[in-house]
Design a protein that fits this description.
The chain has 272 residues and is α+β, with helices and mostly antiparallel strands. The chain has seven helices and 17 strands.
Length: 272
């Protein structure tokens, strides 16, 4: 039986993820976080996207603006061919990372003897800086809204999603679900969502390209269907003409697949 390949990673290593075979994104391993113990590698993801034929220049990559910081398991991503190492740099960004305030919550709480108690995630928030103990806050005070990074350990596939869209759609991303941070779309990202409809109102399906609406489909309670493009919305001075993606608090159940939107746009899918 073939032995598993030994994977060695260290702080400063730089990794490349090829997104949908269209462009390259890079991130750097900064440090391990003792607060989020198990396989918790803290990385910084860089903002710039590179063409697929780009030959990595490590110092140029690590000099780029940071898009976000995140906890993940780098080894898991390597084993699943989500990314690969391209080099390393002594400029690890650790000093800046230690200034970032992370926050996380969970539907369980651990008591004496590691006993487990089910709790409301909204009442179970803790915050911390790298290298410091976590502070339990219970319900997160409003002044922290928009000021903390998600401290949960994110699987590799949601890290790829954040590189592609600017956020992930998982319901475990409590920092988004509870409105601590709004999901903000990256330029050029195609996002498909739906809102509304309770048999008395309109259900709307959206296709956002970046922050703006590219197309929408409105289905009224009486079955009337209206399809509009960006130009249609602007020409009619539609109520959503100035709506941007981040203006709405999107939750996990709002996100749909591109295929579903296209079937609705083309009139191939009946809405129940």
């Amino acid at each position: 039986m073939e032995k598993s390949k030994r994977i060695v990673t260290k702080a400063g290593d730089v990794f490349c993820a090829e997104i949908d075979g269209k462009y390259k994104c890079f991130f750097q391993y900064i440090i391990n976080d003792v607060v989020q113990k198990k396989n918790s590698n803290v990385v910084r993801v860089f903002k710039r996207r590179y063409p697929m034929d780009y030959k990595p220049c490590i110092e140029d990559i690590v000099s780029d603006e940071v898009l976000f910081y995140l906890h993940t398991d780098i080894r898991d991503g390597i084993m699943n061919d989500a990314w690969y190492k391209v080099g390393d740099s002594k400029k690890s960004g650790e000093e800046d990372c230690r200034k970032i305030l992370f926050g996380a919550t969970s539907p369980v709480s651990y008591g004496p003897g590691r006993s487990i108690e089910c709790v409301e995630p909204e009442e179970n928030w803790r915050i911390w800086h790298i290298g410091e103990d976590a502070v339990f806050l219970g319900r997160l005070p409003k002044e922290y809204a928009g000021k903390i990074e998600d401290g949960a350990i994110i699987p590799y596939y949601y890290l790829l999603m954040r590189m592609k869209l600017g956020f992930d759609t998982d319901w475990h991303s409590y920092i988004y679900e509870f409105g601590i941070r709004h999901r903000v779309a990256l330029p050029g990202a195609d996002i498909y969502v739906k809102k509304g409809y309770d048999y008395y109102s309109t259900q709307t399906f959206f296709h956002f390209h970046g922050k703006g609406i590219a197309r929408l489909v409105e289905i009224a309670y009486d079955g009337k269907v209206t399809r509009m493009t960006t130009d249609d919305i602007a020409a009619s001075n539609h109520k959503m003409s100035r709506l941007e993606f981040s203006d709405i608090k999107w939750i996990h159940k709002d996100f749909i697949k591109e295929e579903e939107f296209e079937r609705i746009w083309n009139g191939e899918m009946k809405i129940q």
